[in-house]
Each structure stands twice: as C-alpha cells, then as structure tokens.
Records
---
Amino acid sequence: MEKTIRIKRFDPESKNPQAYHQEFKVEVEESSSVLDALITIRESIDESLAVRCSCRGAICGSCGLRVNGQGTLACKTKINSLRGSNGTITVEPMGNMAVVKDLVTDMRPFWEKIRQVTPWLQTTGDAPTAEYLAPPDAMTHLNPVMGCIMCGVCVSDCTALEVDPTFVGPAALAKAYRFVADPRDAATNQRLRDLDEPTGMWDCTRCMVCVEVCPKGVAPMDRIMALRSKGMNSGLTDTYGARHSMGFIEVVRDKGILDEVMLTIKTLGLFNISRFMGLLPVAIRSLLHGKLPKPGPFHKPLPGMHNIRRIVDTTEKMK
Amino acid sequence: MQHDVLIVGAGLAGMRAAYEANAEGANVALITKVYPVRSHSNAAQGGINAALTDRGDAWEEHAFETVKGSDYLGDQDSITLLSQDAGPEIIALENMGVIFSRNDDGRLGTRRFGGQKKARTFFVSDFTGQAILHVLFEQILKTNIPTYNEWFVTSLVIEDGQCYGVVAMEMETGNVQFIQAKSVIIAAGGLGRVYEPSTNALICTGDGMGLAYQAGAPLMDMEMVQYHPTTLKANGLLISEAVRGEGGHLYNSKGERFMEKYAPNMLELASRDVVSRSEQTEINEGRGINGCVHLDCRHLGEKFIKERLSQVWEEAHTFSNVDMTKEPLPIRPGMHYQMGGVKTDNNGRCWDIGGGGWGGVRGLFAAGEAACVSVHGGNRLGANSLLDTVVYGKRSGLAASAFAKGTPSKDIPSSIISKDDNMIKSLLSRKDNKDSVAAIRLEMGTMMNEHLAVYRDQKGMETALTKIRSLRERWKEVPVRNKGRIFNTTLINAMELGFMLDCAEAIIVGALFRKESRGAHVRLDFPERDDENWLKHILTYQQPGADPKIETLAVRMTQWEPKPRVY
C-alpha cells in the first residue's frame, strides 16, 4: 500500500538553514515499521535523508524520533497502527534536543546528564572472590529498569525539560534508581542526597508522559516517585517537594479536603514572604474562578471526618 | 590526537579491552561509528557460558563441548584459555554491576544452551548482552576513558609493516583526521549485512575485518558462517536460543518433533549448525510451513515465558504478531554470526611473533567477532560469543598496552590523511549513473544467502564469485547522490559496502577452497568431513590488483582427538 510520510527536514549545509516539512509517497507492506519506510525513502527516493538506525529490533536505541507528535522508536512503530490525519504520517526529530540534521539530534546533553547521576555501581570493602550475594527478587526487580536502552524518547517528550533544560530528566533518574535499588550499592544515601538537590528528582511534574512513550516499559516516572519515597524515608524532608508531599497528607487528614492555602503554607513555610508574593496573583485568579476552596478557618469540617482520618491512618500504616 | 592504545569498536570486546588497557596505565581511547551502547553486543539475548567448579562443573567439559561444537576446527589451546578464564570473568562482570539472574540462595543462576549437557549459561533474563554492554559502558564513564563517538574509520595507518593508528571521519562534521596510536585493537564486530536477510544490525558491515585485510593482515576461516536456527521470517530478526534452552520445541508441518530424527539425544539443543541444517532439510523436503518450521513453547506457561523470555515474547508479538503463550512461532534458519575473522594469536596479536608460519601487521590486535583466534572453529556454541568478547577482549587489552609500552613514538605527518580525504572527495564527485549503494548491497546479500548458506556446492559458489567481482566493478562507479559532509549516511554506506565486498569475496574463496563438509560449511559435492586433508585453517590475504592469496595453517590440538560428531 502507498503511504504519505511527512518528514521534518533540516539541512545545516544549505544556504539558508531552516526547518521545513517534506512529503514522500512510499510503498510499504502491511508489516512495515516507520523505520522501514524511512529506509525505503533514503535508499530509493532521497539519499540525503539523515536518520540514525541500527538493530531494527528495539534494542539499540538509535532511532528515537517523533511520529505524529509523540516520541517513539521508528523501528517499533508499525505503520498500520497509526491513524494520521488523512492517512499522512508525520515524522519529526526528538524534542528537547538540538537538531544536527533532519531526524538526527545532538545527544551530547543526554549523555552528560546520565553522567551526572554517578552511573556505576559503588561498593565498599575488598572485592569479593565470588559474586555478591543478593536476593533474587531484588535483582529481578531491576530487570525492567536495566531494560532501558537510552534511546532518549522520554527526554524528548518530557514536559518538565521543556520549561527547565537544567532538569536532569527521566532517563538519568531511572538510571539513578537502578543503583539506589541495587542491594550491592553502598552509596545509596549519598546518591539520594545528590538527587535531593535542585534539578534533581523533585523537578519532575508527574505528567506521566515518559511512562507513556517509553518503548521499553522502564516507566521512568514511577522510578522517580520511588526515589522520592526512599529519600523521604531516609530523612530527606527539607525540600519544597518533600514538604509538599508530606503536607498534602497532613492537610487531608486534618480537613478531609485539599486546602491549597494550608498546603502552600506547609510547603513554603509561613515566613517565605517573597514566594507568597509571587503566588498571590495566581491565588486571587483561582479564587475568583472558584478553583480554590475557602481558605483555612472559613470552611466547615466535612461530615464523616473521622472516617477520612481512619483511611489516612490505615494507609500510612500500610506503607 | 595521540594514544597508546586505540580501540576500533565499542561493543563488549572493545570496552573490555579498553577497561583492561586503562587499568594497566595506558592512555587508551575508543572509536566507534555509533555510541557505545548502540553496539550490536546488545543483541546477544541468551547468556554467557562458564563452567564454575563450585557448581560441580569443570572447564574440561566446557572446553570439550566447544571443541566438538567447532567440529574440531577450533584451536584447542585457545579454547582451553576461553573455558578456564570464563569463571573469573563472570565474577568480574558481576562485581562491576551486571544484575545476573539468581537462584533462591542469592547466588548466580544458570540455564541450558545448545551443544552442552550441563546448564552453564549465566544470564540476565533474555537481554544478557545489553545488560553487560551497559555495565561496561558504566565502567568506561567511571574511568573517564575518552570515546570518539560517531567516527567512521576509513583506514589503518601502516608504516614499515606496523600499525600506527587510524584515519577516521567525524560523522557530524565530515572532517577527516589522523588519530595516532602505538597499538590498535580491531573490535568492530561482525559482517551480517553481507547477507540478506541477517539477524545482524545495520551497522554490522565487516568494517574491522575489511580494515585489517586491506592493511595486509590475513582473514581466517571466513567460509564458516553461522546460520541461527530461529529467526523471524518477516525481517530476519533473532529469536534467542534461550527459548529452546528453557524447553521450547520445534515442529514440522506434520506436527512431528523432527529433531528426534537428527539428534536423538540433544534434540533441539544440538549445536546450531546441526539444528539449522535439520530445519532446512525439513523445509526443502516439503514439511515446512510457508518456508518455516514452528517453535512452540506454550507448554512452558505464561508466567514462565513472561519472566524468563520477556524480550522474546515482546519481539514475536511486535514483529510477527504472535503471542507465544498461545500459539507457535514460525521461524527459519538465518545468517547470524561469522566464526572467521582477523587471524590472531591467543593474545589478540594480528602478527606472528615467531614460528607460527603466517604473516600479518605488527601493532595490530583484534578481538570479538571481528577476530578469529580460533575458539569457534567451524561452528560456535550459543553463549560462547559473549564469553569470547570478554575473555579475548581482556587479553588483547593487556597485550596491546604492553606492546604500546615498548614502542617508541613515531613522527607521522598529518598529511597521511590525504589519500582517504581524496577517496571521499572522489566518492562525492561521481556522476549519477542510476546505480545505488543500496541496490548493490541488496544484490550481494541475496546472492550470498542463495549460494553461501546452509548447503553449498561448487557451481553455486563459482556463480557467487563471478557475481561478487562484477558487483565490485559497479561499486567503483557507484554514485553518492547526497553531497553534504554533515551526517552523510549514504557516504558511510558506500564505504561500508567496500569492506563488505572484500569480506564476501574472502568468504567465497575460502568456501571454494575447503573441499569437505565441516561445521557450518556443508558442501553437497563433498558431504563428508575429511580430517586427513582439511583439519586446518584457511588464511586469506588480500593482494592489490590480484586474486586473494590462500594459505593453510594446522589446527592446534592438545587433548581432544577428532571423533565423529553425534548429538
């Protein structure tokens, strides 16, 4: 069958380098992947099309790009699974990265961020003469996160990175989790302290996009949440993120609803005047649009408050 | 840009060599045409062999089964080193961070693999290669070893029969540079793309073998090309031997478990050449299913399959639309691995340090699939390739750093790049004659898969030789329509094709020369193994402007006399 593939092109060597979209009509088979189509274009229509690719089987991580606006591996995306507008499939380079040429992006910042999380096993004492003993489940637990192939697709679509390029990002944090959760690693506390710093684990906005787009089921956001729990459990409770997380539970236990004003006070601290001033316009607009409950002292306790408290306490005990 | 040791390729062999050379204090660098974790070592799914004495296993058993698997073409002293170093190497990898699967007691667990009676394959689910590759990459980051990522090596620099580095092109800029080194290790992997289809990644284009061959080092046993018994029909991708190791069965169209006929003891776990030939015979004799046979593992149960074979399940689901927990998977033999490669000694040296009776290039080393020590001989056992990469990667890293220490630096002008620079300019300035790199590659691959596959004969191979030489003539004129210098993949493909054509010719001349059937090389016109005349390696030397020169070399035997091979 014939398909129209619309590709975002960029040639840095042209006279006036600017990105543009170009359409190709290409004959594909029922079982073809987007990568098959791109290779057909490169081999028989336009040899100048630049795309990284190697294994064709979703294990090397070379062909990360965007199809119809979403990050994915070209080799793993079957053409017949896509419903583009008018049957046209749009292929673009990954986001949150500079483009080198066409679908090839600059991966250097990606690798630099991986480097930031001290991505190697740190053990103490003399090297053993045999393997380290470790519970089999603890190792099996690491399989999905070791399954990360560093394709960059999560980084491409990360909404937090879009507004803050200094965020270490989902791939590096998933890698960090791989060591924090490894029973052989002896640097857990130091790792968590490092991740507790600005640009670290608290900068994730929990939008879930990385979980959705990851082609290998690594679920980076889930790993980030697990890192936060481990951090708080180890006593790292002095960040806005940690205080927000703990304050959330306290407020609900206290009032049965999410009192945003109280939560803000618990998160920022009562005397953080400058941050409060910054938030004031947002608070007023929200209040006017009915998006905030009446602040603290003005609202009545919910009926059946003791049941809500019971639920919170039971859940806390179960942790 | 100057180093003691420069390693071409950053897969398992390359990074293991780099790690070792660095530990010896050498100034070492890796150069790769991709990023290290993109390397094809990723694709090794099933595991890595080691006979650990504290598990009631013995290196002698592993060694013997490797010798038998090689159809007695493997060098027995090299195989002894391989099996003796295996245990410490597994432990070293575990200590570096590999999350090998474990038993209930917290110690490393094993699974069974083909051609071996004991379960001695250590594994990480079914992505063992990837797991080890990423851990070695972590060690490269930890030790701050520099890597030239996305650089394509165009030639080795040879002065007075000694290698002094490489000329390479940075793909992001198109700049050509000389990178000097006192020793160079070729660890650039296999040549799968010489065939179509192949389980191999698109980057497996025999660059390393081609580079060494063009520089004057001999290639050895290139006729020994492994066809893996289980590959997908749709795109040739690999389905791990682990599926059979964990208990998967093979059936023909009549529902017969046909391996009972060909290998009554080892059944589906006979060595790969045997299983692939059996499948091909079933298919040729009309008992196939659309050119395939069935791999069935429904009886293993959904939980087991999803835990121990998760990637395979996913792969079959994505690429063949088959749910392996509910239906059998159609598979067929497909080109998978090159047992041959750049001839080395037991320390990775590509030259004869004395008395061996072969010639090569001083200062040049090789390891991994690009090399031929030979530990695989006529047929490699499953899960011995990862082992080969780390054991001989380490050995070559040690030897290359020692060689660098004893080698004074040499003045080589940077104008050394002009030959390669001009070659690239001429590639880019060719007239468009409507031919294409992709078309020549496809014709070569299809032709090799027709004439140099599981079964071979004189006539087919002669046809292949004529064809490969005519394709080479076309290659000399083939246009590169993309004229840019930045990330010009067609330009890279054109140069890769040059290496592949050289490798293909070496395969064909080796196969024509070996007038017997051994391991993966089975000739319908010489159906028997002939130990009297052919218990020897075949070395191919490139001769500028002439046909390759062929020499033979005796197989090194220690304690295992050749016997008939029954599984």
---
Amino acid sequence: MQPDDLANALRPKLGPRLRAVEPFEGTAGRVRFDRTAALDLFRAVRDDLGFGHLSMVAGIDWVDRREVVYVVWSDAARQYAILSTDLPADDAHVESASPVWPSANWHEREAWEMVDIGFDHHPDIRHLLMPDGYAFHPLLRSFKLHEPEELEVKARHV
Amino acid sequence: MAAVAAIPASKAPVGAGAALPGPPLPVVHEPGVPFLEIESLRAKEFIPAAKEALTSLVAEQGQSKLIRPVFNWAGRNSLFPLHWGLACCAIEFAAAFGARWDAERFGVVPRSSPRQCDLLIVNGTVTWKVAHKLITLYEQMPEPKWVIAMGNCATGGGPFRTAYSVVPGVDKLVPVDVYIAGCPPRPEAMLDGILRLEQLIRERKE
C-alpha cells in the first residue's frame, strides 16, 4: 500500500478535512487530517483499509501547537500507517479513538496525563502513571523540573 | 521474688501446703496485691493481675531496666523484614538471603505479610504513585517497627531526585532509622545496615 492508495481511499470520504498524505519510510504513509474528521477517518482506516490494530497513540508538544500521532497496523497488508493531527496549544482536544480501537484507552490516558491533550468522549479518563490528583502535565515543555521540596508540597496527595 | 515479700501477711497467697479453708483469696482489685495464685484467677482477672505484678516489679527495679534488655535481645535477633521489592536494590536484597551471604545468620527472615514484620527495608525508587501504598504497609506493621532506606533512591531520590514522579527520599513519608548508601548497595552493605540497626535496638531505652 502506497500513500496514493491511502489518499485515493480517504479523499472521497473526508474531502478537505484530509490535509495531506505523505510518504513515510517503512510505512504505508503518513495521513495528516483535521481533528473534526477524527472519528470518520478512524472508521474508514479500520473498516475500509483494514488497519485493525492501533499500535500506539502519542502526544507531542511543539510549544506553538500540539500533535497527536496514531500508529496503526494492518495484518492483511503487513504494513503500518501513521495518522496525525495538529491541535492548537490553548485548545488541545480531539475525539477519542477508543470506540474504534479499544487499545487507544490507556494510550490516550497517558497522552492526556503527560502532555495535556483532551480526548472527548473517552470512556475512562483517569491518571495512568501518576497518582490521582497529581497537579502537573510533566512532559509539557512549559513544565519546569522543580526543586524536590517544592514538588513535594505540590504533588503530595498521599 | 522481692515483690512477693511486699505482700502483707494477711493477704499472702495460698501456698502449696496450705489447707482449705485458709485465709481468703486476695481480690485482684485491691491495691498492693501484686502477686497471686495463677490457678485461682478467673480469665478476666488474669491480665489486670499480671499488669499489676509487672508494674510493681518495674517500680522496684527501675523503669524498664529489668525487661527492656530481654525485649531488645529478642527483637534484634529476630528482625523480620517485609518481602517487598521496588527496584534493582531488591536484587541485592534477594542476594543477601541467598546461600553466599545468608542473612538468616542474623535472624533476618523476610515475611510476606506486614502484620508479621517489624522491619521495612525500602529497596528502590519510591514514586509518588506507590507512596501511599508504602505508608499503608508501614502502618500495617505492628509496633515496634523500624525502617531501613536501602540505596541512594530511597535515601534521597538518587539520580531521579528532581524527577516529576519520584519521592526525594523515603524519609519524607516514614521515619527512617538506618540509611544505606550505594547504587545499589552490595549485600555486605545491606547486612552492615542491619547490624547497625541491631546496635540501635540494643541501645533502645523506651
């Protein structure tokens, strides 16, 4: 499967909400999409293109914007594909992929917890790695490594 | 024995050769009756009587001078650490109980339940996520209890001191008696820490 195949299959369903399809080494291609197209794209990629397994969801903080990257795998084509969407830094939220790929659940919890990306209609949005009530999103670029005592005062919920 | 001599003659306990009916049995609630015939006590009377006897004994011998060394001797020779591994220090912790170092020589036997332990060896990096579990385990241990911070992470956060998820030293959570340096400490260092704790217990007054 080539980037053109991805574009030809997805363009009729998504229209301009499909921003670009780029070649990406070792995968079928990298699909950049608008966040309003998230659920439509997920369903099309899973049902029409056969990418049945969501391997990873990652959040990236680019300071001026945030990005969510989904890596999906197709058993039939034996190929990965990458889906990514840009979010504004002050309003970073996107529709959850959990209804389409249940494995997105914990990955999205981690992305929310670490880089503060909201996932709408997530079934169970809780802290995953940090204790409940933890006040920071520590992998944001704006997060400063605190002095231990300062962090202790802020983070102590035990 | 000295306490027995303090009993007034009229309230002396019934001796082995005394015939019934003898002098009336002493009543537990009466003050100044430290020692009694154990056989004559009802079950609910035993603990007050024993307490009374012990108190009078201590009052005579001085605070804790008589029994404290015995308790300390027993305690320091049967330290039961909690079998709880957190990180790589737990590997050295395990090695210390193997054939080569054999920590059981010192009466140190890891137990799986905090109810059976009197020593908490924190061996590894303590994160904020596990912090309240650690406090729960510590609180579940019966008194008297001691804590050893094993390794640099438990002592002060180690290389992760400024990390967002790591408790900078387990003494922020529970009182620590002995710190062991090393990353990780060798089993000899752990045994040295246990021997130092035994020294602390030997000198324990209260």
